[in-house]
Structures are given as C-alpha cells and as structure tokens.
Amino acid sequence: MAIAKAERLMNLALCLLGTRRPLSKRELRESIEAYLEASSDDSFNRMFERDKDDLRELGLVIETVENLDGEVGYLARRDSNRLPPITLDAEEAAALGLAAKVWQQARLAGAASGALQKLRAAGLPEDVDPYEAHGALEPRIPVHEAAFEPLMLACRDRRPVAFDYRKATAARPEPRLVEPWALECWRGHWYLAGWDRDRGAERVFRLSRITGKVRTRGGKYTAQVPDVVTVRETVASWAGDIADRSALIRLRSGSGYPLRAKAASVRELGDGWDELEIPYGHGLDAWLVEFGPDVVVLEPAELRADVVDRLRAVAKG
Amino acid sequence: MAGKPAKPTNALDQTRRMLSLVTYLRERPGARVEDVARAFGITEDELISDLDVLPLCGTSFRGGDLLDIDTDGDRIWWHNPDDVAEPLRIAADEATALLVAARAVSTLPGLREGDRQALLRATAKVEAASGEAAGASARLSVTFESEGGVFADVDRAISERRRLWIRYYSPSRDELTEREIDPIRLVSVGHTYVEAWCRRSEARRTFRLDRVAEIKILDEASAPPEVELRDLSEGLVQPAAEDPEVVVEVGPGGRWVAEYYPHDSAEELPDGGLRITLRAPDPASLRRLALRLGREGRIVSPVEVADSARQAAREALAAYDGPQGAGDAGDRPQDVPGTTRDGAPGAPLDGGGGAQRPDDGPHGVHDGLYGRQEQGL
C-alpha cells in the first residue's frame, strides 16, 4: 500500500530538522521508507523535489549545501526555523482565535489554523473560547470566485498573469495581461488592482468577471508597484459612494427612506411631497428610477434627462 | 459548531499540524485527547488519525528513531521526546491568512474596545514574530461594513439577553416597518446582519444593519425559541424551490443581474445578453429591478411585473410633462447611448462596470428579492 503523503512529508521534515550536517539525496532516500519504495530514480527525484517545495510552502527554510566532493546536501537549520519568542495573554489569544476562523476559503482557512497551531505549540493560552469572549459576533470573509487562489499566489510571488475578462457591459470577454498588485474584498466582493500591460495603465478588476483560467506568465514586473494600493477608493467612486455634486429631488412623503438617510436637507412641501437635496454620484439616475412615481428630479438638468430617458425606455417596454 | 469554516483535510495541512503537534505534546505529557483536539481546532477523529501517523515518523535519517507516541484514547504519551520538536516559524501564507483576518476584524465598528485593543496588540506581536513572512500580507485586504451604533446596541442586547425594537427598511416594498425582535447572533459577510426571532412574524429573520433606521433596547428579556443555527457558508439567503419562477432577459449592459441574483440558469443570448431564470418568493418586488434595467433588460414573466413597471414608469413620466418638464428632458433622442456613464470623465477603470450596478451591493438586491427574512408581514 502506498505510504500516505503526510507521513512522507513529516519524515522528510523531521530528518532535515534533526540533522546537524547536510544530508544527501541518497542518504534521505535510504532513510525514508516511502522513498525506498519509489519504483525508479526518476520517480524518486520527482517526489523528492515536490516534497521539498511543499515543505517550503509550509514555511520550512531548507538550505541546499554543496560539499567538497560536489555532492549536494540538504538541511533545515534549527535557528533559521525556530519561531522567535512570542508571548500572548489570554485576551490576545482569544482575539487571534476569532480572527483565525473568518476565512471561508480552504487554503487561507488552513493557513490561518496552521499559524494558530504553531502559536499553540509555542504556548499560546487556550482556555478561552473565542466566541464566548467576543459575544455574538461571527465575521466571515466570503471567497466564491475561482480566480481568487491563483491571483493570491500571483500577488504573493509577483508573477504576471493572463486571463479573460468580461467588462460589465461587454458581451464577450477579452484577454488581459496584468501585473497583479493586491486583492481587496469590499462589500463581499473581491477586486484585483494591478498594471494592465496592454493598456499601459493601472486597472481594477472584479474577480467575478474573470472568465476561464488565470494563467501565470514568466518574467518580471515592468511597472513599479506603488507603496499603497487603493482598490477601495476606486471601487467606491464607481459605486457612487463618492459624490462631488448634489441633486434636488421631490420625494413622496413616507417613501424612499434610503434617499432620506443620505439627504443633506429635507423640506416638507405640505402637499404629500418633500424636497430633498441628495449627493449626486455615479449611478444615481438608475437608483432614482427604482422609486418610480415616488421621485421627481428637479435639478440638475442632466440628471433629470437621464432619469426621463430611463423611464421612457421602461414605459415603452 | 455552527458557522465553523470548512476544514480541508489535505496532506499539507496535516503535515503542518503534525509538526506543531509534536512540539505541543512534548510540553504536555499525558495531554487529554479532548483538550488537544480543541487547542488545535480539529475533531478528535482527526487528532487520532494524526496520532496513527506519528509513530511511523522518525527524527533521524539513520532510521530506528521513530517517534514513540501513543494514546489510550483518553491521554497521549510521548515516551522518547526529542528536541527536534521546537516551535516553527510562521510561513508567509500563514502570516498573510492570520494578519489579514485580524486586521479586518479589528476594523469592525462594533467590536468591543477591549477586544479591539487585544487584537491590535496580538497583531503587532505576530507581525514581529513573523518577520519577513509578514510582508506579503499587505497584498490582501478585507473591509467589513457595519453600522457602528446599531451594531453596538445589537451586540449589547445579545449579551444581556434583551429584546430589541427596530424600525426597518424593506427595499422590496420601499417601506419602514416597526417590529420587536429577539436577537440571536451577528454575522458579517460583506455587510453585517443580525439573525433574530421576529416577534411580529413569529419566524426567524435576518436584518441588514444598514437598513435599521432606528433601534431601542427594551426592558423585556429576549426569548428566542431554540433554533438550529444555519451554516451560512453558502450565502445568507437561499431561494426555495417552491418560489415562483421569474424570467429576466437582459442585454450586455444588464449582465450584472446574473452576478447579483442567485439564479437557476443563465442562458447566453445571441446579442451578448442573458436569459436568466430565478426564483423569488414575491415577484412583485422585482418591479424595482425592471425599472432599474430600463432598456438594458426586461422581465419576461410573470407578465404582471413587467406591466406594473411600465405603469409606474408612465406615472413617473407624467410628473415631467408639466411646464417645467417636457422642455429639457424631451429633446433627447431616444436612442442616444449616452445614458450610461461608462465613458464619463472620472468613471473608474475596467473593473468598474457602469451605471447599471445596484447601489448597495449584492445583498441589497438579494434581500429585496429573496427577502423572506424581511417578508411575510
């Protein structure tokens, strides 16, 4: 029966951590049962390279050292792999415990518990239930987009990526070549900021509009990565949250609470209508049309025309 | 426990866990299975399967030095503890996962101040201990939305087990209703929601905090019936099979509907649009969607919804036909494509979509649609 991969990885990790001198591939092969069972040199080599990569992915620092005979050896030095001293009190431990539970994405959920387990092993207090300590709060970070994981890795490793992207109003996706900078989750959706090579400019992409696979490309970044990437401001302005003008509307009494909540001023007209001054940002026309006959736009004329135009389209329906 | 994140069982996660486990066990001879499983956030079965693997692992390349770890099912013993088992550094992905989550949680406006301070202290310590590995964590960030004042009142009502009175906005009806609720828990998924037992409808409801117009903590004790907490990982709102079917046809500019509304199917149309079939407990609430879509789409069925949207648009237009109305608005040709703002100055980048996007995000739409939590009133 094939030996489980976790057992093989664990043996390799313990060998590399336990040794004081570099171990050659031959020595490792002879001391780990799963490698002894490898059917050929090739299959052993492949397995060994993959395992080393996996352990590095788990954070193990594995050094490659060449001895005088030119033979390559491997070891994981204790001092480069030891967690620096860290002391957390019970409250801090409970707070981290809560944070470690928020990811709904398998890889990050696994990594967060991995971090917490390392801290537990190093003495993190464990007698507090994080849910008890934090009352009824259950924050969750949703990740539904398939493009998330490859883009996260590409941002981490600074690798250019290619993907097909369908703009909100476009029928067909178009290929994009992007140097990814950062991912941000806002209002439950993930966005990518990066350098669009074909357009020679910074762009923000919504992950749910990426179609097909994200493929990594070789080579270095051509544009400098900014110190601070502000995905959120870009998306907020696009969502109409940032308004630099205001509009004047009439609103039927008792209706349109969200408009009232945003209004800078509300004046009762006394005939069953109120007059409101509201922020005028991106997308306001579409929003106002939702209220149908309960809203009349007074000014500016541009907004009034947009709303009338939309209403006519529906009226013709 | 409800709401617990899905736990992957892959070889990498298991290896990572076993490496920490040996360190942990060295410090705690005779540790209880139950306690260790809790400390590691795993089930006892998962722990036992780790304990089955560990005795097959060795600390030396010469072999023969296998970990002599065993358990009687209650306690765990390591008979030849080895100094290989030192606490390991935090890896880059681990630092990212924990730090990004911690920063996000620390921005929740409703978090108690003491807890926030503890979290900030812990975050700084983990950053320091992670060293370089913490660097990449700046490449991911998460913002939770929630309404500070409302959040604090709900949180207090839950911990003091008190009933709440709220005035709540229902977008599908464009109306405010008053009701008393017994809060059960707060959930943040993009927006923040309170799950509660609604005394008015005698049913479980979910309320989005930014739609709570007013809130008061009442003197009465909260007494929600025992309800099983749902696993919310699949989304807060699930359409039900018995809900009436709605068919929406959209052009390319209305494709966002498929992103915001859970649907049964979305067929591509030759013009680059979609034919979307979804379910809504109250199709009349889709009048808003029909109005918003304008020329970018229409409700195909039920036909009454399309009729009521058309009627509403005509009524609304009548208000513009007065002396100040027709003039400026009437001149605009019907087919000028300038009514969407994609090309407007300052319209953001490609990730941005255009004027078609609902103002308040997915749940805004979902709640209007599948607002059984908010409906039945």
UniProtKB/TrEMBL annotation, chain A:
Q: Tell me the domain of life.
A: Bacteria
Question: Could you tell me which residue ranges the WCX domain spans?
Answer: 247-315
Enumerate the transmembrane spans.
none
Q: Where is the WYL domain?
A: 147-211
PANTHER family referenced in this protein's UniProt entry, alphabetically: PROTEIN PAFB, PTHR34580
Q: What is this protein called?
A: WYL domain-containing protein
Protein's organism: Streptomyces liliifuscus
